[in-house]
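U., I forgot to send this yesterday:
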Amino acid sequence: MKMKKVLALVLAAAAALSLAACGGKGNTKNYPAKDLEIVIPYKVGGTTDLAVRGVLDAIPSSVLDKNITVTNTVGGSGLIGTEEFLSHDADGYTLGLLNCDLVLNYVSGATDINPTERMIPLAAVEQDPYLLLGSKNASFSTFAQFLEQANANPDTLVVGVTGVGTVPNLLGAILLNAGVAVKGVPYDSAPDAIAAVLANEADICISAMAPAIGQIDSGDLVPLAVTSADRSQASPDVPTMAEVSDLFKDVNLLSWIMIALPAGVDDSIVTYWKNALADAVASDTYAATRESFYFEPITITTDQLSDFVAEQSEYYKTLIA
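Result:
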């Protein structure tokens, strides 16, 4: 009997050591003990993909000495990859993304994934306004003039937005809620919407800075307004929609991306990632990546992440009601 008890104790101790070595949940002292994975629900080489990779590359090996495999699982406005991310164990070895499109899809009922319950935001890697853009050949050169024409000719001006289920698509609701009667036409991507403006198929479009910068620099596209509450640092001469008209005083439409863990991960692992990513986002290494996409400096602090997500969620509700 004594020999069996000793053997049982030895086996139990060996199992505990094995679990710790594998980074099992509840044993975080040696975390991370193996390589990790991050699921990005967008295509390889896209802006989101490259921004996230840029942040991860900015984590020094002295902080993280394990490899992170990037898995790109696309489709469903990011929902397929998000479902893949959340199908993994909450052991801290699989990370994913929480972004504006996911929150919008939950608020609109397109998914039952509640990001505030299912995810823990760790760091914001992007937060940027959109630009409203017109052609140099348009009959208006300012957002105020566009509004005048839209009000004088209801339902004639065309606004190019990106697909249903994405935040830029809310521009149509913003304009309609302000009593501006326009035709909203969805395009597959911002470059497609930009091409429509250049071809005079659309009067204005909404886009992030990066896809439009070439045509802005050439003068073919004219920035009319930004969708944020404050002016953009990347285009400080462009007014906000609110500056142009009080009808848009509450507009603060942003593109934002956060790296996240699934709910249920050990607190010590959450703390580890928040510290590592906060330093990476603030690093000169990531600044170079961020500036190459004309991204604004990140102002959302670690302590503000959850509140920011909740605020954006409530804002979207006002636009789709």
